[in-house]
From TrEMBL:
PANTHER family: ADP-SUGAR PYROPHOSPHATASE, UDP/ADP-SUGAR PYROPHOSPHATASE. One of its GO terms (cellular component) is nucleus. Residues 50-205 form the Nudix hydrolase domain. GO terms for molecular function: ADP-ribose diphosphatase activity. GO terms for biological process: nucleoside phosphate metabolic process; ribose phosphate metabolic process. Keywords: Hydrolase. This is Nudix hydrolase domain-containing protein. It comes from the Eukaryota.
Length: 239
């Protein structure tokens, strides 16, 4: 597996708030617990249409003859000048209110970025499988030390036949997205292997992967379980 596309930074320069479309910079005046007035600089999205900015999708793919996989994507992120492995995600549109609206946004973004998530043909010919939404979370802070941006997490399970074709993504103009099917077991170690191949990893995905490793070690028990959980060989993702 290797990075398929090429992209690069041409320049970086400061901008004022009236020059930006997506993100604005704010100076927040606040009083700390000791009564002292302070200033906090924060960057917030200008695109929020309701109570939540975005939704991420934790997608578990199950096939009869293989272990559960998680569906991930990678795309070039100019702020870090690199290809970042992450869960599929996207902005919530006007009118997509509450958890139901966030769920609709999640399935739309999942279909655009990966081909999964849309209505199935019912005969398996489109490869989308049988989809079940397991959970849509409450609103969560995204990066609270830097931004007021927030998001929900939608957890879905998709059952796919062994011989089902790979569904075709429907990216928007300007999106260059790779998708990766990665075994859930050993996810953290697999992400480390992807980093060695040149990818960056979204911290939220890495935290999720560490949590899986800790839960697996706790279930196994024994004095060396936690050490073993972080020292095994990572699995090879399907790209």
């Amino acid at each position: 597996m290797s990075i398929r596309y090429t992209a690069s930074i041409r320049s970086r320069e400061p901008v004022s708030d009236d020059q930006t479309k997506w993100v604005g910079l704010q100076a927040i005046k606040w009083i700390d617990p000791a009564g002292k007035e302070r200033t906090w600089e924060a960057a917030d999205r200008k695109t929020r249409k309701g109570e939540v900015d975005a939704v991420a999708i934790c997608t578990i793919i199950e096939r009869p003859s293989s272990e559960p996989h998680i569906l991930l994507v990678s795309q070039y992120r100019p702020p870090v000048d690199g290809w970042v492995v992450e869960m599929p995600a996207g902005l919530v549109d006007q009118g997509e209110e509450g958890k139901e609206g966030s769920t609709r946004a999640a399935l739309r973004e999942l279909q655009e970025e990966t081909g999964y998530g849309g209505p199935s043909s019912g005969d398996g010919s489109d490869g989308r499988g049988e989809l079940n939404v397991l959970e849509t979370s409450d609103i969560m802070a995204n990066d609270p030390g830097m931004s007021g941006a927030n998001m929900r997490l939608c957890v879905v399970k998709i059952e796919v036949a062994d011989d089902a074709p790979e569904p075709v993504a429907q990216p928007e103009e300007g999106e260059f997205i790779e998708k990766h099917l990665v075994p859930l077991k050993g996810l953290y170690l697999t992400l480390q292997e992807m980093q060695r191949k040149g990818y960056s990893v979204d911290a939220r995905l890495a935290h999720f992967a560490v949590g899986l490793s800790i839960a697996d070690a706790a279930a196994q028990g024994g004095k060396g379980a936690f050490i073993t959980a972080f020292s095994s060989t990572g699995a090879t993702p399907r790209s």
